[in-house]
Amino acid sequence: MDNQRLFLGIALVFVVFLIWQQWTAEQAARRAPVSSSQPVAGALDSESAVPSIPSEPGADVPAPAPGVLPSAVAAPATSGRIRVITDQLDVEIDTTGGDLRTLRLRQYPVSVHQKDTPYTLLSDSDDLFVMQSGIVTQGDAPAPTHHARYTAPRSEYRLAEGENRLEVPLTWEQDGLRVTKIYTFERDSFLVHVQHRVENRTGSTWSGAQYRQIQRRPPTEGESRFIYTYTGGVISSPEQRYEKISFDDMDDEPLSRTIQGGWAAMIQHYFATAWLPPETERATYYTRNLGGQRYVIGLTGPLETVANDSSTVYSSRLFAGPKIQDRLAEAAPGLELTVDYGYLTIIAQPLFWALNFIHGLVGNWGWAIILLTVCIKAVFFKLSETSYRSMANMRKMQPRVQAIREKFGHDKQKMNEAMMELYKKEKINPMGGCLPIVVQIPVFIALYWMLLESVELRQAPFILWIKDLSTKDPYYVLPILMGISMFIQQRLNPAPPDPIQAKVMMALPLVFTIFFLWFPSGLVVYWLVNNILSITQQWIITRRVEASASRA
User: Which of 64, 168, 201, 345 keeps 20 to 30 A from 521, CA to CA?
Assistant: First the structure.
């Protein structure tokens, strides 16, 4: 078997992989609604978004009934906004429902060209994405759902210099039941503590269950037409720490599952939002398609009974921020898995640890990628040497192989026998270069996903004109250099005897260059450096083999 055929197959598989990614991104975009600059009509006022409750105190929560959407819906109910500013977050809480309607990440700008504009993760306009919570009860007992009207003592809160915690209370009261909803923000944190303090003065026993949910529409556009990463729901349980619940899954069948020690999230490229209940809470996790491209994922806890003149506290936490693995792992077990490396996580995770360690030494993610590539190349040095030596020997034999093809071209059996005799005489294994390359393929793919998923590379500068390793090269210098390096590397390989294969191989550097024009710069840096190292190693080995042959 000619090594060129293996290279051609690998290259074509990679091209198909890129085309598949583009198709997947386009399919996801088709699902999305048309963007609007106005608040989304009916996005937050449907009673169908309120979960049902158990039939008796202490029972598990059943699946929420789908409910009936109103035939005509008005704009989302809004009564007033409470702005909360910490060192990391700029938040707006609506007094209707106490929903977290807007969340901006102050340390994460929209782009390198808009350094003063924080990235908006949550919003109740355009691409609807909000976090809601409330309490539901049986019968006509009072309780504040996310449609209730709260009151607040202030309209703005700021975490002052020297303060580490900031509490934002909202109050609701009806028929002797008083509920204080308290958001607690902390310095240098993307975790927010949420409490519902219930005081029962109704004159009778009261029972209620807390629910927490995330409501959103699929985004109208992705980060790149050529790059697709998962956007959708995720749930976690002790049995399966990371389980995707896509928007298509929510269309097909509503989720209803009782879990203890889990969490529910909506994730996207670089960022995640999640509700994190207490680990001891046994809750029912649910999803719904509310219509109008609106989806809900959430959980409802068990009923708690509160005697008259008594009180109780429902506690939970929410996470809304970048997918920084250390912080995710500290927030909840398995939450770091939202940095989705796919099936090759077992390889990609150590690669990230190595990249992060190198960055701690050099302080630049671009140089860290280069040094990591060098380290990977060093690990596979001997395997690569075997492959390149085999190719060099095959290259040396090309004239004799071609002569055999011309002599026995009409008789394939005799041609194959003559070629095997030649390989045996010269002690050449035509398969010698295959295994080393095949072994390295999972590592290359894992590194690809690792670089693609790491929020640390978002807006990370490298050198000169490369101001953001997560976006394309603005002047296309790196992709062009990468294409040139592929062409040079191809010239070092033995030429395919088949004219069609030769033409396809000649076209591959151009095809890859076109694809890589829109790839994140960090990925192109890796590919370019890997090619340069391969060219250097292959050139040295080829010269040695040829020199040895000339001396003989």
Answer: 345
Q: Which residue has the tokens 């908006």?
A: 120
For residue 276, the cross-strand partners are 317
In 3D space, the residue among 2, 1, 13, 4 whose CA is nearest the CA of residue 442 turns out to be 13
Vertex 268: Cα angle to 264 and 274 (nearest 5):
25
- Cβ contact 351:450 at 8 Å: yes
Burial of 490 (0-12, 13-18, 19+ CB in 10 A): middle
Collect all residues with Cβ–Cβ distance below 8 Å to 198 and sequence separation of at least 6: 135, 177, 178, 179, 206, 208, 306, 311, 312, 313, 314
Rounded to the nearest 10 degrees, how much is the dihedral formed by the CA atoms of 338, 340, 345, 350?
Answer: -70
Give phi and psi for 434, each to the nearest 5. Answer: -80, -55
Q: How would you classify the pairing of strands 118-122 and 282-291?
A: unpaired
73-98 residue pLDDT tens: 333 455 689 999 999 999 999 999 99
Q: Rounded distance, CA 374 to CA 358, Å? A: 12
Evaluated on CA atoms 7, 9, 13, 19, the torsion sign reads positive
**How many angstroms separate the most distant Cα atoms in the chain?**
104
Query: Can you tell me which residue has the tokens 């960090």?
Result: 522
Say what the alpha-carbon torsion angle 220, 225, 226, 231 is, to the nearest 10 degrees. -10
Dist CA 405 CA 398 (whole Å): 10
> Does the CA dihedral 214-217-218-223 come out positive or negative?
negative
Residue 210, CA distances (Å) to 204, 260, 304 in order: 20, 15, 9
Do 156 and 72 touch, CB atoms closer than 8 A?
A: no
348-357 own/partner pairs: CB under 8 Å, 24+ apart: 348/446, 348/447, 348/449, 348/450, 349/450, 351/376, 351/443, 351/446, 351/447, 351/450, 352/325, 352/450, 352/454, 355/450, 355/454, 356/456
Q: Tens of pLDDT along 291-340?
A: 888 999 999 999 999 999 999 999 999 999 999 999 999 999 999 999 99
Helical (H) or strand (E) element with 545? helix 521-551
- Torsion, Cα of 61, 67, 72, 74 (10° steps): -10
Residue-wise burial string across 368-407, b where 16 or more C-beta atoms lie within 10 A, e elsewhere: bbbbbbeebbeeeeebbebbbbbbbbbbbbeeebeebeee
Write out the DSSP string of 37-70.
SSBPTTSS--GGGS----SSTTPPP-PPP-----
Report the predicted TM-score, pTM, of the whole model to 2 decimal places: 0.81
The DSSP call for residue 342 is G
Structure tokens at 312: 């109780």
